[in-house]
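dumping this here so i dont lose it
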């Protein structure tokens, strides 16, 4: 099953900001997006449910300290992923 990736405006800004500061992470992010679209719960992503202020969202790991925050939604009756934020552990939590 393939998931549709939906980028929020805040997510697009966060990605641009992060890549401008850390250009070497661009390839890692692209690979993570590809894996998310194929299987957002693949063990390599270390996807986990969030609690507290981010309850209802999920986080996956991209490398050691980089995280992608997302929600699972439906778009046109098909499963989709709403990408909410990206950044280091301290930036997104």
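and the seq i came up w/
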């Amino acid at each position: 099953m393939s998931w549709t990736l939906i980028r929020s405006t805040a997510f697009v800004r966060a990605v641009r900001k992060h890549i401008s500061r850390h250009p070497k992470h661009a390839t890692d992010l692209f690979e993570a997006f590809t894996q998310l679209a194929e299987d957002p719960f693949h063990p390599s992503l270390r996807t986990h449910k969030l609690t507290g202020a981010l309850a209802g969202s999920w986080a996956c790991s991209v490398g050691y300290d980089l995280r992608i925050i997302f929600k699972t939604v439906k778009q046109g009756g098909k499963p989709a992923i709403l990408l909410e934020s990206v950044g280091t552990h301290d930036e997104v939590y």
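The beta strands are 4-7, 48-49, 58-62, 66-75, 78-88.
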